[in-house]
């Protein structure tokens, strides 16, 4: 469980999802990808990559976490690591940014760098 205050959790999680949304929208505008769609509403970001699958990234305020559902690696829970300024999954020993950069780059066939640690 995260030791973040409610206000810091809200700030960090909102900033992360908004930055991801903007970056993924830019990628969609720059590349022609069949059935590419991104939606962000009420703390839930949904990225559809057609036949490559759908990513769902959402806030979990009771746990002060961000949860990810990936078509590649499945469900994961991320806690904010204030020392490194990153959302981190202890089970996989990997940050949210590292996982998303790798999986989405593989799905799109081009290297991307999302503005998230």
Description:
This protein is α+β, with helices and mostly antiparallel strands and 117 residues long. The chain has one domain (6-108): Frataxin/CyaY (Metal Transport, Frataxin, Chain A). 32% of the residues lie in helices and 33% in strands. It is built from 2 helices and 7 strands, in the order H-E-E-E-E-E-E-E-H. It has helices spanning 6-30, 96-108, and strands spanning 36-41, 44-49, 54-60, 65-70, 74-81, 86-89, 94-95. A 7-stranded antiparallel β-sheet has the order 1-2-3-4-5-6-7, with helices on one face. A hairpin with a 4-residue loop joins strand 3 and strand 4. It starts with 5 loop residues before the first helix and ends in a 9-residue tail after the last helix. The model has no long low-confidence stretch (mean pLDDT 94). InterPro entries: Frataxin (IPR017789), Frataxin/CyaY (IPR002908), Frataxin/CyaY_sf (IPR036524), Frataxin_CS (IPR020895). One of its GO terms (biological process) is intracellular iron ion homeostasis.
Search tags:
single chain; 117 residues; alpha+beta; Metal Transport, Frataxin, Chain A; 7-stranded antiparallel beta sheet; 2 helices; 7 strands; globular
């Amino acid at each position: 469980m995260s030791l973040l205050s409610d206000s810091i959790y809200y700030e960090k999680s909102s900033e992360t999802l908004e930055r991801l949304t903007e970056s993924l929208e830019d990628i969609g505008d720059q590349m022609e990808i069949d059935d590419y769609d991104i939606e962000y509403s009420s703390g839930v970001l949904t990225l559809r990559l057609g036949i490559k699958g759908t990513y769902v990234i959402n806030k979990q305020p009771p746990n002060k976490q961000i949860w990810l559902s990936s078509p590649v690696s499945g469900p994961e829970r991320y806690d904010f690591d204030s020392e490194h300024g990153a959302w981190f999954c202890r089970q996989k020993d990997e940050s949210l940014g590292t996982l998303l950069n790798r999986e989405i780059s593989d799905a799109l066939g081009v290297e991307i760098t999302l503005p998230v640690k």
